[in-house]
Amino acid sequence: MNRLAGKTTGFPLGSTIQSETKGIWMWCVPHPRRDDVTLVLLDTEGLGDVEKEDEKNDTWIFALVILLSSTLVYNSMRTIDHQALRNLHEEGEGEASADYAQFLPSFVWTMRDFTLDLLFDGRRITPDEYLEKSLKIQSVLGNLAVMYVDAIRSESVPCLENAVAALSKIENSAAVEESCALYRRLLGERVVPDPKIGAVGEKDLSGVHDECLQEALGLFKTNSFKDEDERYQKDLIEQIKEVYHGKCSENAELFLCNSLLQRLSEKLGHASYLRPGGYADYRIQLDSIVQTYRATPGKGVQADQVLEAFLKDREENIRDIRRTDKVLTQRMHLLKEDKTRADRQRYEAEAEAAQREKKVMERRLGELRARGVHTEH
Questions:
Q1: pLDDT by residue (tens digit) across 87-113?
Q2: Residue 26, SS3 per DSSP
Q3: Other Cβ atoms within 10 Å of 209 Cβ, number
Q4: pLDDT tens for residues 271-313?
Q5: 178 vs 87, 221, 240, 324, CA distance in Å?
Q6: Over the stretch 326-341, which tens digit does the pLDDT of each residue have?
Q7: Which helix (H) or strand (E) holds 357?
Q8: What whole-number distance in Å separates Cα of residue 217 and Cα of residue 57?
Q9: Directed axis angle between helix 278-295 and helix 303-313, to 10°?
Q10: Radius of gyration for the alpha carbons in the chain, expressed in angstroms and rounded
């Protein structure tokens, strides 16, 4: 407060455990830029003083300075934490009245003995950014402003109590929707089917559900506004139960469909089809499995999805079998051609040898005949 007055002294400062300021102290100082305006600084005693006899004293002082001030400066120690927000909320609670709702001042939060590094997600932030991230006002003030404007336009007096009730409905409904969406997203990300069965074990699914439920409830409690009878929290839990039961049904259908395909494809071995003509035989067997699977009743809404995944998993096998079939078939044709060519060459060689032998025999016979004729002479 002394700094606001541009002075180093004025309001007393205490360094002991005993409160120095009692009640409300007032100091009038000239406005730094407007000569016709005087600033009235009000310094109140600290909240929660153990020497106070009446616990309502804090509430009275807090209400009085709100009514008197155009700007409220709230002073706290070290950090903006949940307890600081709760203390401020409790001091500002009470039966709201339309008579003073219009006098709510602007708000400034100051901290003393702040020792933390102003880092968020590895990035240095300003004090204003730290306050904004701590308060997370979001849409509450905007909704409240709309309600007040609507009330004024209808020529009625803005009622804080009615506005808070309506605001509670808006904010809590949004909190339920956001928290349920978080649960649904986390459940989808963390439920990882076992490749052996194509589904998740019942115990594992229940464990993931409990984790996601707690995170969704945590988000709801952070964003909810005056859900005093926990009606909206109960509504959130019911919606989450519905999502979970749907996931359980989906998981059961996945298990049923994958078990059926595993049983039908037991003889669909990959290695046994790596041969000439294996691709055609594999396609025949695979088509038969698909027809039998589709004809089986009671598979549920996950049937087509499971079949699509089953066929996709075998695309590499199909390409491998087709490639091997093509290579081996070509090689077999080459071997047949080589055998035919070798047989032809052997036949030709045998024919040539027979011709040569025939010629040799004819020559010898001619020689013998020639000798016989010569002897007779």
A1: 555 544 444 444 444 556 777 777 665
A2: strand
A3: 21
A4: 888 888 888 988 999 999 999 999 999 888 889 988 998 899 8
A5: 27, 12, 12, 53
A6: 888 888 877 777 777 7
A7: helix 315-376
A8: 35
A9: 170
A10: 46
